[in-house]
Amino acid sequence: MPAAPGQILQIRQPDDFHLHLRDGPALSSLVGYSARQFRRAIVMPNLRPPVRSLNDALSYRQRIYQSLPPGASFEALMTLYLTEATTPAMLREAKQSGIVFAAKYYPAGATTNSESGVRALANIDALLAVMEEINLPLLVHGESIDPQVDVFDRERIFLERELGPALQRFPGLRVVLEHVTTTEGVDFVMTAGANVAATLTAHHLLLNRNALFAGGFRPNHYCLPVLKRESHRQRLLQAALSGHPRFFAGTDSAPHARERKEQDCGCAGIFTASTAVELYAEVFDQADRLDLLEAFLSEHGARFYRLPLNEGSIRLRKQEQVVASSLPMGSEMLVPLRAGESVAWTLQN
């Protein structure tokens, strides 16, 4: 039975293992939402220009910390953006720094700011060999960029043609299949070894592809990987609610200004950072499995990344809140998920 109105839930402070913070004025507007809820976050490197080197990561990390609200306790876990010009020496230097926790594989052109990405996973085998050796996780945007592949099949085809063979070549490589969206993606992780994990977003757990077309096209529900059919969403829910230690929270909260979302060829991405923990709580509450929420948000990911568990806690109340219709993003505005609608839980200050 779902929690009663007013019920309080206290859990270990969680981490977000897939977060877009952007840069510049937008960063200053956005980072506080995540710092209020999460102790740590794996920060995506797809800026313009991308975070390609240790120096880039150090500089971006400093800008993040300078943008935090006063008194915030938030650790940015930095990542490098892999390109075909990345060298083994760059990866070794990043790993030794202690501030870079992973490297991100973007198929070239697959998503926002991925133009500098890699054309095929096999093209960077020399880098994968080094990452396997030094135990640096590979974070994967798992979509095929073959133009002949249907948009709803891109994850499945990528797993079959690229990631599966790569893990045969490098069986010890630690991999996170980010924002997994399909039955095939869940099954891939379930049947893989302990070195393969996946993040699950709140929006892929809550929405299926019908949400894109409810009463007309809904650009603020457009993300990549795109929302899938209901049968896939149900499989994602089964994974999240299974207690399996290699599925954990990664919001993929991806802010874009309203003007760039609601236009011809609008940007892909859903912003959830302002109510991320509450949305995940809603998912687990609806399934009457709030007992599994803490492990999903606060334990599984930390253990996979070999980080200590957070010592602090957060409190949630079963109390509806109305999500703002828009939020500042520098000098522009963005539209969050559930804009003008309610979320069933509220994070207590």
Give an overview in words.
With 349 residues, this protein is of the alpha/beta class. Helices cover 33% and strands 17% of the residues. The protein has eleven helices and 15 strands. It has helices at 24-37, 54-67, 88-97, 125-134, 154-169, 183-191, 202-206, 230-240, 258-261, 276-286, 293-304, and strands spanning 8-12, 15-19, 40-43, 75-81, 100-105, 138-140, 175-177, 196-200, 247-249, 313-317, 321-322, 327-329, 332-334, 342-343, 346-348. The strands form four sheets. An eight-stranded parallel sheet has the order 2-3-4-5-6-7-8-9. A three-stranded antiparallel sheet has the order 1-10-15. Helix 1 packs across helix 2 (54-67) and helix 3 runs parallel beside helix 4. The longest helix is centred in the middle third of the chain and has 16 residues, at 154-169. It is globular and about 55 Å long.
Task: Outline the fold blueprint.
Layout (H helix, E strand, L loop, with lengths): L7 E5 L2 E5 L4 H14 L2 E4 L10 H14 L7 E7 L6 H10 L2 E6 L19 H10 L3 E3 L13 H16 L5 E3 L5 H9 L4 E5 L1 H5 L23 H11 L6 E3 L8 H4 L14 H11 L6 H12 L8 E5 L3 E2 L4 E3 L2 E3 L7 E2 L2 E3 L1
Parallel strand pairs: 2-3, 3-4, 4-5, 5-6, 6-7, 7-8, 8-9
Antiparallel strand pairs: 1-10, 10-15, 11-14, 12-13
Helix pairs in contact: 1-2, 3-4
